[in-house]
């Protein structure tokens, strides 16, 4: 058990808190691309304790701005997409994706000093069906070239799940193989649901249900931690399951696609006590079976 002080150190994510500043130095998911269609309305989002306005301009570019207009503090998520930016609905100040004020219609000379305005703006990139943002200091690093973000259309499924707990509590479950034999033990199985584990015709869920808690080994890596869990299956066979914790806030694990891919849980703080879990699974060799996608999403819906 960690101390209360250690827990606060790891889970306080506002700007200026150690964990908050660390997480801001990495690209983080802020929304699904499907939540912000071309021509769609802006969104009010909250990430790492900051309330922001997410929008797609009339050229399809994504911007993430401080929620409140620099003029009178109006909520910019109620603004209009027009003329190359996001226009505040109160007095018409127009911001582009970089936070520059393009127009101030009610000001003398149409806003002669508008170039002095630099509204809070975070860079965004879109990949793999997800919109990412960088909220840290200096120039943004390269967006990680993860395999699951580079799959063809139809080969990857991504969705997100709301959790009323801090990001670390849920992430802890990803690196806890013991609980799988109990919490994720299904009482009824249909083998066609998910791809079989390599070397067997059985699914991952069947194997963990049959075996008792595993023997564990841990390897410290340059990206985080790799966890080996070994379950004795009888007849001189074992089931070896390998999962990874990737700093600072995502994990990978065997998923619904067997050896053709894996699952990813990326836990992104909303604030210190709530977070979004972005879930990916993919098949690098073939398009995903729509039935597998539908059942996975149905299981998520059943939880909430």
What does this structure look like?
With 304 residues, this protein is an alpha+beta fold. It has helices at residues 4-11, 18-23, 167-174, 180-183, 204-210, 290-303, and strands spanning 28-32, 43-47, 50-56, 62-66, 80-82, 85-87, 94-95, 101-103, 121-122, 124-127, 130-133, 156-163, 215-220, 224-234, 237-246, 250-253, 263-271, 274-282. The strands form four sheets. A seven-stranded antiparallel sheet has the order 12-18-17-16-15-14-13, covered by helices on one side. A four-stranded antiparallel sheet has the order 2-3-4-9, with no helix packed on it. A four-stranded antiparallel sheet has the order 5-6-7-8, with no helix packed on it. Strand 6 (85-87) and strand 7 (94-95) form a beta hairpin. It is elongated, with a radius of gyration of 22 Å.
pLDDT average, as an integer? 90
Strand order of the largest sheet: 12-18-17-16-15-14-13
Radius of gyration, Cα only, in angstroms?
Answer: 22 Å
Distance between the termini: 29 Å
Strand content: 25-35%
Helices and strands, in N-to-C order? HHEEEEEEEEEEEEHHHEEEEEEH
Briefly note the structural class of the backbone. Answer: alpha+beta
Please describe the biggest sheet, giving its number of strands, its sense, and whether it closes into a barrel: 7 strands, antiparallel
What level of helicity do the residues show?
10-25%
* Continuous helix count: 6
Per DSSP E runs of 2 or more residues, the count of β-strands stands at 18
Unreliable parts: none
Question: What is the overall silhouette?
Answer: elongated
């Amino acid at each position: 058990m960690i101390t209360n002080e250690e827990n606060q150190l790891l889970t306080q994510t506002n700007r200026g808190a150690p964990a908050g500043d660390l997480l801001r130095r990495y690209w983080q998911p802020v929304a699904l691309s499907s939540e912000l269609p071309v021509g769609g309305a802006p969104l009010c989002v909250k990430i790492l304790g900051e309330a922001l306005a997410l929008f797609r301009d009339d050229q399809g570019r994504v911007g993430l701005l401080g929620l409140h207009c620099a003029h009178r503090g109006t909520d910019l998520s109620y603004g209009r997409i027009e003329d190359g930016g996001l226009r505040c609905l109160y007095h018409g100040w127009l911001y582009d994706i970089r936070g520059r004020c393009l127009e101030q219609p009610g000001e003398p000379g149409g806003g002669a000093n508008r170039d002095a305005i630099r509204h809070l703006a975070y860079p965004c990139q879109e990949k793999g069906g997800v919109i990412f943002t960088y909220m840290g200091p200096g120039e943004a690093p390269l967006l990680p070239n993860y395999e699951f973000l580079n799959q063809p259309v139809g080969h990857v499924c991504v969705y997100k799940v709301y959790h009323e707990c801090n990001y670390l509590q849920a992430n802890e479950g990803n690196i806890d193989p013991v609980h799988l034999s109990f919490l994720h033990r299904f009482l009824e199985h249909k083998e066609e649901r998910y791809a079989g584990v390599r070397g067997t015709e059985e699914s991952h869920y069947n194997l963990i249900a049959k075996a008792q808690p595993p023997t564990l080994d841990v390897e410290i890596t340059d990206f985080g931690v790799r966890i080996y869990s070994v379950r004795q299956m009888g007849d001189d066979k074992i089931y070896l399951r390998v999962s990874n914790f990737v700093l600072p806030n995502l994990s990978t694990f065997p998923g619904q696609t067997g050896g053709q891919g894996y699952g990813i849980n990326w836990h992104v703080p909303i604030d210190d006590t709530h977070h979004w879990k972005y879930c990916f699974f993919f098949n690098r060799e073939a398009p995903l079976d729509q039935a597998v996608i539908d059942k996975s999403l149905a299981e998520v819906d059943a939880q909430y």
